[in-house]
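Example 3.
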Amino acid sequence: MLHIHCPYCEEYREEEEFSVVGEAHIIRPLAPEELTDQEWASYLFFRKNPRGLHHEMWAHSHGCRKFFNMTRHTVTYQILETYKMGQQPSITTEDTK
Amino acid sequence: MQKYSGFGLLKHSMSHHENWQRVWRNPAPKKHYDVVIVGGGGHGLATAYYMAKEHGLTNIAVVEKGYLGGGNTARNTTIVRSNYLWDEAAHLYEHSLKLWEGLAQDLNYNLMFSQRGVLNLGHSLQDMRDIERRVNANRLNGIDSQVLNNAQVQAKVPILDCSKNARYPVMGASWQARGGTARHDAVAWGFARAADALGVDLLQQTEVTGIRRKDGAVCGVETNRGFISADKVACVASGNSSTLAKMVGIDLPLESHPLQAMVSEPIKPILDTVVMSNHVHGYLSQSDKGDLVIGAGIDSYLGYGQRGSFDVVEHTIAAIIEMFPIFSRVRLNRAWGGVVDTCPDACPIISKTHIKGLYFNCGWGTGGFKATPGSGQVFAHTVAKDEPHPLAKAFNIDRFTSGKLIDEHGAAGVAH
Protein backbone atom coordinates (compact mmCIF):
# COMPACT_ATOMS: atom_id res chain seq x y z
CA MET A 1 0.00 0.00 0.00
CA LEU A 2 1.47 3.33 -1.05
CA HIS A 3 1.37 6.25 1.33
CA ILE A 4 0.81 9.32 -0.73
CA HIS A 5 1.26 12.94 0.27
CA CYS A 6 -1.43 15.08 -1.33
CA PRO A 7 0.12 18.48 -2.03
CA TYR A 8 -3.25 20.17 -1.65
CA CYS A 9 -4.50 18.46 1.53
CA GLU A 10 -0.92 18.52 2.80
CA GLU A 11 -1.15 15.16 4.48
CA TYR A 12 -0.24 11.55 3.87
CA ARG A 13 -3.19 9.38 2.92
CA GLU A 14 -3.52 5.76 1.81
CA GLU A 15 -3.34 4.72 -1.83
CA GLU A 16 -7.00 3.66 -1.91
CA GLU A 17 -8.09 7.30 -1.82
CA PHE A 18 -6.18 8.04 -5.00
CA SER A 19 -6.34 7.04 -8.62
CA VAL A 20 -3.65 7.06 -11.27
CA VAL A 21 -4.26 9.15 -14.34
CA GLY A 22 -1.09 8.40 -16.31
CA GLU A 23 2.10 10.04 -17.48
CA ALA A 24 2.40 13.66 -16.38
CA HIS A 25 3.31 16.76 -18.37
CA ILE A 26 1.62 15.65 -21.58
CA ILE A 27 0.42 18.78 -23.30
CA ARG A 28 -2.60 18.63 -25.56
CA PRO A 29 -1.59 19.90 -29.01
CA LEU A 30 -2.91 23.41 -29.63
CA ALA A 31 -3.61 22.75 -33.30
CA PRO A 32 -4.45 19.05 -33.68
CA GLU A 33 -5.41 19.45 -37.33
CA GLU A 34 -1.84 20.43 -38.17
CA LEU A 35 -0.30 17.30 -36.68
CA THR A 36 0.92 14.38 -38.75
CA ASP A 37 -0.57 10.97 -38.01
CA GLN A 38 2.69 10.06 -36.29
CA GLU A 39 2.54 13.06 -33.97
CA TRP A 40 -1.11 12.48 -33.17
CA ALA A 41 -0.42 8.79 -32.41
CA SER A 42 2.44 9.83 -30.22
CA TYR A 43 0.19 12.20 -28.26
CA LEU A 44 -2.57 9.60 -27.90
CA PHE A 45 -0.80 6.30 -27.39
CA PHE A 46 2.95 6.44 -26.97
CA ARG A 47 4.19 6.74 -23.41
CA LYS A 48 7.62 6.72 -21.82
CA ASN A 49 7.03 3.63 -19.68
CA PRO A 50 10.44 3.94 -17.97
CA ARG A 51 12.07 1.37 -15.75
CA GLY A 52 13.17 3.90 -13.15
CA LEU A 53 11.96 7.39 -12.27
CA HIS A 54 8.60 8.39 -13.66
CA HIS A 55 6.58 11.60 -13.45
CA GLU A 56 2.94 10.71 -13.32
CA MET A 57 -0.39 12.37 -12.68
CA TRP A 58 -2.61 11.18 -9.85
CA ALA A 59 -5.97 12.35 -8.58
CA HIS A 60 -7.05 12.50 -4.96
CA SER A 61 -10.37 10.97 -6.02
CA HIS A 62 -11.80 10.23 -2.60
CA GLY A 63 -10.34 13.29 -0.93
CA CYS A 64 -10.00 16.80 -2.29
CA ARG A 65 -10.58 15.46 -5.83
CA LYS A 66 -7.71 17.54 -7.19
CA PHE A 67 -5.14 16.40 -9.73
CA PHE A 68 -1.47 16.52 -8.81
CA ASN A 69 1.83 15.09 -10.01
CA MET A 70 4.23 12.62 -8.50
CA THR A 71 7.78 11.46 -9.12
CA ARG A 72 7.97 7.77 -8.37
CA HIS A 73 10.39 4.92 -9.02
CA THR A 74 8.72 2.19 -11.07
CA VAL A 75 10.83 -0.66 -9.70
CA THR A 76 11.05 0.17 -6.00
CA TYR A 77 7.73 2.09 -6.07
CA GLN A 78 9.37 4.70 -3.82
CA ILE A 79 7.64 8.08 -4.03
CA LEU A 80 10.24 10.83 -4.21
CA GLU A 81 7.97 13.83 -4.37
CA THR A 82 4.47 15.04 -5.10
CA TYR A 83 3.82 18.48 -6.50
CA LYS A 84 0.94 20.64 -7.60
CA MET A 85 -0.34 20.97 -11.13
CA GLY A 86 1.56 23.54 -13.12
CA GLN A 87 4.75 22.99 -11.14
CA GLN A 88 7.83 21.26 -12.46
CA PRO A 89 9.43 18.24 -10.76
CA SER A 90 12.53 18.95 -8.70
CA ILE A 91 13.91 15.43 -9.16
CA THR A 92 14.63 14.38 -12.74
CA THR A 93 16.95 12.10 -14.66
CA GLU A 94 17.90 11.92 -18.34
CA ASP A 95 15.14 9.35 -18.92
CA THR A 96 12.32 11.39 -17.48
CA LYS A 97 12.97 14.59 -19.43
CA MET B 1 15.19 -36.56 -27.24
CA GLN B 2 14.06 -39.27 -24.91
CA LYS B 3 10.41 -40.03 -25.62
CA TYR B 4 8.08 -39.88 -22.63
CA SER B 5 5.50 -42.65 -22.38
CA GLY B 6 3.75 -44.87 -19.87
CA PHE B 7 6.12 -47.65 -20.73
CA GLY B 8 9.13 -45.35 -20.15
CA LEU B 9 7.77 -44.49 -16.73
CA LEU B 10 7.53 -48.18 -15.90
CA LYS B 11 11.02 -48.88 -17.27
CA HIS B 12 12.60 -46.04 -15.29
CA SER B 13 10.85 -47.10 -12.13
CA MET B 14 13.10 -50.21 -12.23
CA SER B 15 16.11 -47.95 -11.74
CA HIS B 16 14.40 -45.70 -9.18
CA HIS B 17 13.99 -42.92 -11.77
CA GLU B 18 17.68 -42.09 -11.54
CA ASN B 19 18.55 -42.41 -15.20
CA TRP B 20 16.25 -39.94 -16.91
CA GLN B 21 17.93 -37.87 -19.56
CA ARG B 22 18.37 -34.17 -18.78
CA VAL B 23 15.38 -32.29 -20.13
CA TRP B 24 17.53 -29.76 -22.02
CA ARG B 25 21.20 -28.92 -22.48
CA ASN B 26 22.87 -25.95 -20.89
CA PRO B 27 25.13 -24.83 -23.76
CA ALA B 28 27.73 -22.07 -23.88
CA PRO B 29 26.76 -19.27 -26.27
CA LYS B 30 28.04 -19.65 -29.81
CA LYS B 31 29.61 -16.69 -31.59
CA HIS B 32 26.87 -16.42 -34.17
CA TYR B 33 23.23 -17.40 -34.54
CA ASP B 34 20.81 -16.92 -37.41
CA VAL B 35 18.17 -15.75 -34.95
CA VAL B 36 18.42 -14.68 -31.33
CA ILE B 37 15.14 -14.68 -29.44
CA VAL B 38 15.18 -12.39 -26.42
CA GLY B 39 12.98 -13.75 -23.66
CA GLY B 40 12.71 -17.35 -22.51
CA GLY B 41 9.09 -17.42 -21.47
CA GLY B 42 6.32 -19.43 -23.08
CA HIS B 43 6.01 -17.17 -26.10
CA GLY B 44 9.77 -17.01 -26.74
CA LEU B 45 10.23 -20.76 -26.38
CA ALA B 46 7.21 -21.44 -28.59
CA THR B 47 8.68 -19.08 -31.20
CA ALA B 48 11.95 -21.00 -31.10
CA TYR B 49 10.19 -24.34 -31.36
CA TYR B 50 8.04 -23.43 -34.35
CA MET B 51 10.94 -21.67 -36.07
CA ALA B 52 13.02 -24.83 -35.84
CA LYS B 53 10.19 -27.19 -36.63
CA GLU B 54 8.37 -25.38 -39.42
CA HIS B 55 10.99 -23.13 -40.94
CA GLY B 56 14.07 -25.32 -40.64
CA LEU B 57 16.08 -22.71 -38.76
CA THR B 58 18.07 -24.55 -36.11
CA ASN B 59 20.94 -22.16 -35.48
CA ILE B 60 18.81 -20.27 -32.96
CA ALA B 61 19.35 -19.13 -29.41
CA VAL B 62 16.83 -18.11 -26.78
CA VAL B 63 18.43 -15.71 -24.30
CA GLU B 64 16.78 -15.33 -20.93
CA LYS B 65 17.98 -13.08 -18.13
CA GLY B 66 16.58 -15.32 -15.40
CA TYR B 67 15.46 -18.89 -15.81
CA LEU B 68 13.13 -20.37 -18.42
CA GLY B 69 9.47 -19.62 -17.80
CA GLY B 70 10.22 -17.61 -14.67
CA GLY B 71 8.30 -14.52 -15.71
CA ASN B 72 4.66 -14.17 -16.60
CA THR B 73 4.50 -17.75 -17.90
CA ALA B 74 4.74 -18.95 -14.32
CA ARG B 75 2.67 -16.13 -12.85
CA ASN B 76 -0.62 -16.26 -14.73
CA THR B 77 -3.81 -18.06 -13.79
CA THR B 78 -3.44 -20.62 -16.61
CA ILE B 79 -6.75 -19.90 -18.34
CA VAL B 80 -7.12 -20.75 -22.03
CA ARG B 81 -10.05 -19.53 -24.15
CA SER B 82 -10.67 -17.85 -27.50
CA ASN B 83 -13.97 -15.97 -27.16
CA TYR B 84 -12.73 -12.60 -28.43
CA LEU B 85 -14.99 -10.09 -30.14
CA TRP B 86 -13.24 -8.82 -33.26
CA ASP B 87 -12.39 -11.06 -36.21
CA GLU B 88 -8.65 -10.40 -36.12
CA ALA B 89 -8.29 -11.25 -32.44
CA ALA B 90 -10.78 -14.13 -32.55
CA HIS B 91 -8.89 -15.76 -35.41
CA LEU B 92 -5.57 -15.42 -33.63
CA TYR B 93 -6.78 -16.80 -30.30
CA GLU B 94 -8.81 -19.54 -31.97
CA HIS B 95 -5.77 -20.56 -33.98
CA SER B 96 -3.97 -20.82 -30.68
CA LEU B 97 -6.73 -22.84 -29.03
CA LYS B 98 -6.64 -25.31 -31.92
CA LEU B 99 -2.90 -25.72 -31.40
CA TRP B 100 -3.49 -26.27 -27.66
CA GLU B 101 -5.78 -29.17 -28.49
CA GLY B 102 -2.96 -31.21 -30.01
CA LEU B 103 -0.03 -29.64 -28.22
CA ALA B 104 0.71 -32.25 -25.55
CA GLN B 105 1.03 -34.93 -28.28
CA ASP B 106 3.04 -32.63 -30.49
CA LEU B 107 5.54 -31.80 -27.74
CA ASN B 108 5.40 -35.25 -26.12
CA TYR B 109 4.95 -33.47 -22.81
CA ASN B 110 2.02 -33.60 -20.43
CA LEU B 111 0.66 -30.05 -20.31
CA MET B 112 -2.30 -31.07 -18.17
CA PHE B 113 -4.47 -29.23 -20.66
CA SER B 114 -8.00 -29.54 -19.39
CA GLN B 115 -10.91 -28.25 -21.46
CA ARG B 116 -13.16 -27.78 -18.48
CA GLY B 117 -15.02 -24.82 -19.95
CA VAL B 118 -14.90 -21.12 -19.16
CA LEU B 119 -17.81 -19.07 -17.80
CA ASN B 120 -17.84 -15.29 -18.18
CA LEU B 121 -20.52 -13.99 -15.83
CA GLY B 122 -22.86 -11.11 -16.54
CA HIS B 123 -24.22 -9.09 -13.62
CA SER B 124 -26.12 -6.33 -15.37
CA LEU B 125 -28.29 -5.79 -18.39
CA GLN B 126 -25.39 -4.18 -20.20
CA ASP B 127 -23.14 -7.13 -19.32
CA MET B 128 -25.70 -9.48 -20.85
CA ARG B 129 -25.99 -7.38 -24.01
CA ASP B 130 -22.21 -7.40 -24.39
CA ILE B 131 -22.13 -11.14 -23.77
CA GLU B 132 -24.79 -11.78 -26.38
CA ARG B 133 -23.00 -9.64 -28.90
CA ARG B 134 -19.69 -11.37 -28.24
CA VAL B 135 -21.20 -14.85 -28.34
CA ASN B 136 -22.86 -14.08 -31.67
CA ALA B 137 -19.61 -12.72 -33.07
CA ASN B 138 -17.81 -15.85 -31.84
CA ARG B 139 -20.30 -18.17 -33.47
CA LEU B 140 -19.98 -16.33 -36.78
CA ASN B 141 -16.26 -16.97 -36.52
CA GLY B 142 -16.80 -20.67 -35.88
CA ILE B 143 -15.86 -20.46 -32.20
CA ASP B 144 -17.96 -22.49 -29.78
CA SER B 145 -19.75 -20.09 -27.51
CA GLN B 146 -23.09 -20.05 -25.78
CA VAL B 147 -25.23 -17.71 -23.71
CA LEU B 148 -26.44 -19.26 -20.46
CA ASN B 149 -29.20 -17.92 -18.24
CA ASN B 150 -29.14 -17.77 -14.47
CA ALA B 151 -30.54 -21.29 -13.98
CA GLN B 152 -28.09 -22.82 -16.43
CA VAL B 153 -25.18 -21.11 -14.69
CA GLN B 154 -26.41 -22.37 -11.32
CA ALA B 155 -26.66 -25.91 -12.71
CA LYS B 156 -23.06 -25.76 -13.93
CA VAL B 157 -21.65 -24.25 -10.76
CA PRO B 158 -23.84 -25.15 -7.78
CA ILE B 159 -21.57 -23.34 -5.29
CA LEU B 160 -21.87 -20.01 -7.11
CA ASP B 161 -24.23 -17.58 -5.40
CA CYS B 162 -26.83 -17.12 -8.14
CA SER B 163 -29.54 -15.89 -5.79
CA LYS B 164 -31.31 -12.57 -6.17
CA ASN B 165 -29.86 -11.51 -2.83
CA ALA B 166 -26.31 -11.28 -4.12
CA ARG B 167 -24.85 -7.78 -4.15
CA TYR B 168 -24.38 -8.12 -7.92
CA PRO B 169 -26.84 -10.85 -8.93
CA VAL B 170 -25.71 -13.23 -11.67
CA MET B 171 -27.99 -12.70 -14.67
CA GLY B 172 -26.30 -15.15 -16.98
CA ALA B 173 -23.00 -15.94 -18.59
CA SER B 174 -21.19 -16.79 -21.75
CA TRP B 175 -19.85 -20.32 -21.88
CA GLN B 176 -17.00 -21.64 -23.96
CA ALA B 177 -16.82 -25.39 -23.47
CA ARG B 178 -13.50 -25.78 -25.26
CA GLY B 179 -11.82 -23.29 -22.96
CA GLY B 180 -10.06 -24.43 -19.82
CA THR B 181 -6.71 -24.47 -18.11
CA ALA B 182 -3.22 -25.82 -18.69
CA ARG B 183 -0.27 -26.30 -16.40
CA HIS B 184 1.72 -23.15 -17.16
CA ASP B 185 5.19 -24.32 -16.11
CA ALA B 186 4.76 -27.44 -18.19
CA VAL B 187 4.04 -25.31 -21.23
CA ALA B 188 7.39 -23.54 -20.89
CA TRP B 189 9.21 -26.79 -20.13
CA GLY B 190 7.51 -28.69 -22.94
CA PHE B 191 8.40 -26.06 -25.52
CA ALA B 192 11.92 -25.72 -24.11
CA ARG B 193 12.53 -29.47 -24.26
CA ALA B 194 11.15 -29.80 -27.77
CA ALA B 195 13.07 -26.76 -29.04
CA ASP B 196 16.28 -28.00 -27.43
CA ALA B 197 15.83 -31.36 -29.14
CA LEU B 198 15.68 -29.56 -32.49
CA GLY B 199 19.03 -27.92 -31.75
CA VAL B 200 17.94 -24.58 -30.27
CA ASP B 201 20.39 -23.22 -27.67
CA LEU B 202 18.62 -22.11 -24.49
CA LEU B 203 20.87 -19.57 -22.77
CA GLN B 204 19.69 -18.87 -19.26
CA GLN B 205 21.01 -16.11 -17.01
CA THR B 206 21.99 -14.22 -20.12
CA GLU B 207 20.75 -10.67 -19.98
CA VAL B 208 20.63 -8.48 -23.06
CA THR B 209 22.23 -5.13 -22.31
CA GLY B 210 22.27 -3.71 -25.81
CA ILE B 211 21.25 -4.39 -29.39
CA ARG B 212 24.05 -3.76 -31.88
CA ARG B 213 23.31 -2.39 -35.34
CA LYS B 214 25.36 -2.02 -38.51
CA ASP B 215 24.21 -0.02 -41.55
CA GLY B 216 20.66 0.23 -40.23
CA ALA B 217 20.32 -3.51 -39.69
CA VAL B 218 20.62 -5.58 -36.56
CA CYS B 219 23.91 -7.48 -36.18
CA GLY B 220 23.67 -8.94 -32.69
CA VAL B 221 23.04 -8.47 -29.00
CA GLU B 222 25.33 -7.39 -26.18
CA THR B 223 24.84 -9.60 -23.15
CA ASN B 224 26.37 -10.09 -19.74
CA ARG B 225 28.11 -13.12 -21.32
CA GLY B 226 29.59 -11.13 -24.16
CA PHE B 227 28.52 -10.14 -27.65
CA ILE B 228 26.42 -12.63 -29.61
CA SER B 229 26.21 -11.97 -33.31
CA ALA B 230 22.87 -12.58 -35.03
CA ASP B 231 21.18 -11.92 -38.38
CA LYS B 232 17.83 -11.40 -36.73
CA VAL B 233 16.75 -10.46 -33.21
CA ALA B 234 13.24 -11.30 -32.07
CA CYS B 235 12.12 -9.66 -28.82
CA VAL B 236 9.49 -11.44 -26.75
CA ALA B 237 10.03 -9.81 -23.37
CA SER B 238 6.52 -8.88 -22.18
CA GLY B 239 6.80 -6.28 -19.40
CA ASN B 240 10.37 -5.40 -20.32
CA SER B 241 9.72 -4.84 -24.03
CA SER B 242 9.87 -1.05 -23.66
CA THR B 243 13.30 -1.35 -22.10
CA LEU B 244 14.57 -3.39 -25.06
CA ALA B 245 12.94 -1.06 -27.58
CA LYS B 246 14.56 1.93 -25.92
CA MET B 247 18.01 0.40 -26.59
CA VAL B 248 17.47 1.06 -30.29
CA GLY B 249 15.39 4.21 -29.93
CA ILE B 250 12.05 2.60 -30.80
CA ASP B 251 8.94 3.77 -28.99
CA LEU B 252 6.27 1.22 -28.22
CA PRO B 253 2.76 2.18 -27.10
CA LEU B 254 3.08 -0.01 -24.02
CA GLU B 255 2.66 0.54 -20.34
CA SER B 256 4.00 -2.00 -17.86
CA HIS B 257 1.78 -2.73 -14.89
CA PRO B 258 1.91 -5.20 -12.02
CA LEU B 259 -0.73 -7.92 -12.28
CA GLN B 260 -1.35 -10.05 -9.22
CA ALA B 261 -2.61 -13.57 -8.67
CA MET B 262 -2.87 -15.87 -5.69
CA VAL B 263 -3.63 -19.43 -4.65
CA SER B 264 -5.41 -20.80 -1.63
CA GLU B 265 -4.50 -23.83 0.41
CA PRO B 266 -5.39 -27.07 -1.43
CA ILE B 267 -8.94 -28.25 -0.83
CA LYS B 268 -10.96 -31.21 -2.12
CA PRO B 269 -12.36 -30.94 -5.67
CA ILE B 270 -15.26 -28.50 -5.62
CA LEU B 271 -15.03 -26.43 -8.79
CA ASP B 272 -14.72 -28.17 -12.15
CA THR B 273 -14.75 -25.17 -14.46
CA VAL B 274 -13.32 -21.69 -14.80
CA VAL B 275 -15.46 -18.79 -13.52
CA MET B 276 -14.63 -15.25 -14.51
CA SER B 277 -16.43 -12.01 -13.81
CA ASN B 278 -15.39 -8.72 -15.35
CA HIS B 279 -18.03 -6.88 -13.41
CA VAL B 280 -17.01 -7.73 -9.86
CA HIS B 281 -13.46 -8.16 -11.04
CA GLY B 282 -12.27 -11.62 -10.14
CA TYR B 283 -11.77 -15.00 -11.70
CA LEU B 284 -10.90 -18.40 -10.40
CA SER B 285 -10.46 -22.06 -11.10
CA GLN B 286 -9.30 -25.03 -9.06
CA SER B 287 -6.01 -26.63 -9.98
CA ASP B 288 -5.52 -30.39 -10.09
CA LYS B 289 -3.59 -30.05 -6.84
CA GLY B 290 -6.73 -28.62 -5.25
CA ASP B 291 -5.78 -25.01 -4.65
CA LEU B 292 -8.04 -22.22 -5.86
CA VAL B 293 -6.21 -20.16 -8.44
CA ILE B 294 -7.44 -16.59 -8.17
CA GLY B 295 -6.62 -13.70 -10.44
CA ALA B 296 -6.77 -10.02 -9.61
CA GLY B 297 -6.75 -6.93 -11.77
CA ILE B 298 -3.74 -4.83 -12.63
CA ASP B 299 -2.46 -2.13 -10.35
CA SER B 300 -3.20 1.02 -12.26
CA TYR B 301 0.22 2.58 -11.71
CA LEU B 302 3.28 1.70 -13.78
CA GLY B 303 5.39 -0.92 -12.11
CA TYR B 304 8.27 -3.18 -12.96
CA GLY B 305 8.52 -4.57 -9.44
CA GLN B 306 6.68 -7.91 -9.94
CA ARG B 307 4.49 -7.04 -7.00
CA GLY B 308 1.42 -4.88 -6.54
CA SER B 309 -0.57 -3.23 -3.80
CA PHE B 310 -2.48 -5.02 -1.09
CA ASP B 311 -5.78 -3.25 -1.74
CA VAL B 312 -5.99 -4.95 -5.15
CA VAL B 313 -5.71 -8.34 -3.43
CA GLU B 314 -8.34 -7.30 -0.90
CA HIS B 315 -10.70 -6.12 -3.63
CA THR B 316 -10.32 -9.38 -5.54
CA ILE B 317 -10.90 -11.54 -2.50
CA ALA B 318 -14.01 -9.51 -1.68
CA ALA B 319 -15.32 -10.21 -5.19
CA ILE B 320 -14.54 -13.93 -4.95
CA ILE B 321 -16.24 -14.25 -1.57
CA GLU B 322 -19.24 -12.35 -2.90
CA MET B 323 -19.56 -14.89 -5.72
CA PHE B 324 -18.59 -17.92 -3.63
CA PRO B 325 -19.59 -17.43 0.01
CA ILE B 326 -18.57 -21.05 0.60
CA PHE B 327 -14.89 -20.05 0.28
CA SER B 328 -15.00 -17.44 3.02
CA ARG B 329 -12.90 -19.53 5.39
CA VAL B 330 -10.40 -20.86 2.89
CA ARG B 331 -6.95 -19.54 3.65
CA LEU B 332 -4.68 -18.02 1.06
CA ASN B 333 -1.38 -19.72 0.53
CA ARG B 334 0.61 -17.41 -1.72
CA ALA B 335 0.18 -14.20 -3.69
CA TRP B 336 2.53 -12.82 -6.32
CA GLY B 337 2.76 -10.39 -9.18
CA GLY B 338 4.07 -10.22 -12.71
CA VAL B 339 4.79 -7.31 -15.04
CA VAL B 340 2.36 -7.12 -17.95
CA ASP B 341 2.78 -4.91 -20.99
CA THR B 342 -0.61 -3.42 -21.71
CA CYS B 343 -1.44 -1.98 -25.11
CA PRO B 344 -3.95 0.87 -25.66
CA ASP B 345 -6.32 -1.47 -27.53
CA ALA B 346 -5.72 -4.57 -25.36
CA CYS B 347 -4.32 -6.46 -28.33
CA PRO B 348 -0.76 -7.60 -28.94
CA ILE B 349 1.88 -6.20 -31.27
CA ILE B 350 3.42 -8.84 -33.54
CA SER B 351 5.48 -6.82 -35.89
CA LYS B 352 8.55 -6.03 -37.91
CA THR B 353 10.20 -2.72 -37.10
CA HIS B 354 11.85 -0.08 -39.25
CA ILE B 355 15.20 -1.64 -38.27
CA LYS B 356 15.99 -4.55 -40.57
CA GLY B 357 16.15 -7.85 -38.71
CA LEU B 358 14.48 -6.61 -35.53
CA TYR B 359 11.06 -7.94 -34.56
CA PHE B 360 8.77 -7.45 -31.61
CA ASN B 361 6.10 -9.68 -30.13
CA CYS B 362 4.69 -7.86 -27.14
CA GLY B 363 1.69 -6.04 -25.72
CA TRP B 364 -0.14 -9.22 -24.73
CA GLY B 365 -0.99 -7.43 -21.53
CA THR B 366 -3.07 -9.38 -19.10
CA GLY B 367 -3.98 -12.27 -21.40
CA GLY B 368 -0.97 -13.72 -23.17
CA PHE B 369 -0.85 -17.20 -21.69
CA LYS B 370 -3.78 -18.56 -23.69
CA ALA B 371 -2.07 -17.47 -26.89
CA THR B 372 1.30 -19.09 -26.20
CA PRO B 373 1.38 -21.65 -29.05
CA GLY B 374 -0.41 -19.43 -31.57
CA SER B 375 1.73 -16.43 -30.77
CA GLY B 376 4.88 -18.51 -31.14
CA GLN B 377 3.79 -19.96 -34.45
CA VAL B 378 2.76 -16.72 -36.14
CA PHE B 379 5.78 -14.86 -34.78
CA ALA B 380 8.15 -17.62 -35.97
CA HIS B 381 6.65 -17.23 -39.43
CA THR B 382 6.94 -13.43 -39.28
CA VAL B 383 10.61 -13.60 -38.31
CA ALA B 384 11.67 -16.51 -40.52
CA LYS B 385 10.03 -15.20 -43.69
CA ASP B 386 10.50 -11.51 -42.86
CA GLU B 387 6.85 -10.91 -43.63
CA PRO B 388 3.87 -11.00 -41.28
CA HIS B 389 1.93 -14.23 -40.92
CA PRO B 390 -1.60 -13.67 -42.32
CA LEU B 391 -3.01 -13.87 -38.78
CA ALA B 392 -0.43 -11.40 -37.47
CA LYS B 393 -0.84 -8.77 -40.17
CA ALA B 394 -3.49 -6.80 -38.31
CA PHE B 395 -1.30 -6.66 -35.20
CA ASN B 396 1.31 -4.49 -36.84
CA ILE B 397 2.74 -1.61 -34.84
CA ASP B 398 1.55 0.78 -37.57
CA ARG B 399 -2.04 0.40 -36.41
CA PHE B 400 -1.50 3.05 -33.75
CA THR B 401 -0.65 5.58 -36.43
CA SER B 402 -3.24 4.46 -38.97
CA GLY B 403 -5.95 4.25 -36.32
CA LYS B 404 -6.91 0.70 -37.25
CA LEU B 405 -7.06 -0.44 -33.64
CA ILE B 406 -8.58 -3.72 -32.53
CA ASP B 407 -10.42 -2.80 -29.38
CA GLU B 408 -10.60 -5.91 -27.24
CA HIS B 409 -11.05 -4.25 -23.86
CA GLY B 410 -14.39 -5.99 -23.50
CA ALA B 411 -13.15 -9.50 -24.16
CA ALA B 412 -9.75 -9.02 -22.53
CA GLY B 413 -11.08 -6.95 -19.64
CA VAL B 414 -9.72 -8.27 -16.45
CA ALA B 415 -9.87 -11.62 -17.73
CA HIS B 416 -7.16 -13.93 -18.81
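DSSP finds one helix and six strands in chain A. Chain A has a mean pLDDT of 94.
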